[in-house]
Structure to design on (272 residues):
């Protein structure tokens, strides 16, 4: 089987080198968050964005998805725009920019006033390699559930005003969730396990993407997995995973989170 020796492991190393060894078209979903700005180094490590993006295109399967969670630093009074430049590069190398989603923080870090509003979101760029193969949309309650819409008059410029005779169906109880997703950051028990990492994203964010874009048994990759949030949630949701991080300390943190999960497994599986 493809990638057998990498599956369900956290690998220590530069993702550029490890991604070269992962089989082509073998990954169903990538969820990752790169080091934001200071792009040339992170704790002295290399971060070669363009090589990483190209290797992600190689390993992702046709119809697979890459979720790239990123924000911009403000340097010398200007946001860097790095997130947009990265998104356009992904497009240039063949990905579709499938959706520009927003990760809204319900408890953003208060900002010292610098003539701008508090920053309370990051981008979640959703890229696809061709037509998306799996989408299990999250559904939410409709605001106007059950409302019956009457006939409407509309303008047809070639034939003057026209009356729409057919009554629309009543508004359904559920509708597809919007693309701004809100989370409390760092407060939940499962997120507290990652408190020694500088920038973990919430477990629920990883969960929502995994459920949206994969089926049970699919392979989820996080090439810069930090505290292991993506891998933890892939395991909880019965997906296979591959995690990579360049920091030995973070690899150990991820492995510890996975071990904690195993010891609490029964309790957690009961909740899903
Ligand atoms: C923003 S953090 C990811 C946090 C993660 N999403 C979580 O929930 O904990 C970025 C991570 O990228 C890792 N990193 C930076 N350069 C890397 C590289 N070339 N290869 C692999 N990991 C790298 C850093 O060690 C850091 O843990």
């Amino acid at each position: 089987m493809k990638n057998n020796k990498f599956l369900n492991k956290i690998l220590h190393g530069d993702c550029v080198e490890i991604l070269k060894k992962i089989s082509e078209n073998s990954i169903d979903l990538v969820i990752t968050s790169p080091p934001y700005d200071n792009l040339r180094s992170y704790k002295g490590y290399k971060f070669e964005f363009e090589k990483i993006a190209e290797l992600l295109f190689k390993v992702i399967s046709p119809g697979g998805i890459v979720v790239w969670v990123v924000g911009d630093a403000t340097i010398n009074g200007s946001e860097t725009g790095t997130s947009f430049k990265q998104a356009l590069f992904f497009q240039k190398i063949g990905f579709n920019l499938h959706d520009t989603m927003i990760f809204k923080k319900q408890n953003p870090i208060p900002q010292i006033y610098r003539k701008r509003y508090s920053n309370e979101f990051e981008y979640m760029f959703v890229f696809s390699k061709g037509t998306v193969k799996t989408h299990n949309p999250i559904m939410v309650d409709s605001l106007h559930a059950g409302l019956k819409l009457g006939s409407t008059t509309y303008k047809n410029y070639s034939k003057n005003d026209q009356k729409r005779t057919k009554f629309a169906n009543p508004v359904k109880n559920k509708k597809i969730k919007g693309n701004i997703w809100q989370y409390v950051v760092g407060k939940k028990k499962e997120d507290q396990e990652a408190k020694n990492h500088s920038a973990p994203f919430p477990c629920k964010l990883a969960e929502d993407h995994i459920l949206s874009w994969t089926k049970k048994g699919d392979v989820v990759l996080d090439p810069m997995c930090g505290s292991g949030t993506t891998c933890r949630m892939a395991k909880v949701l019965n997906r296979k995973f591959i995690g990579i991080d360049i920091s030995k300390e973070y690899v150990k943190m991820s492995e510890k989170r996975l071990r904690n999960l195993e010891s609490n497994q029964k309790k957690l599986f009961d909740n899903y």
User: Anything to note?
Assistant: Residues 3 and 22 are 6 Å apart (CA to CA). DSSP finds eight helices and 16 strands in the chain. Residues 248-263 form the longest helix (16 residues). The chain has a mean pLDDT of 89.
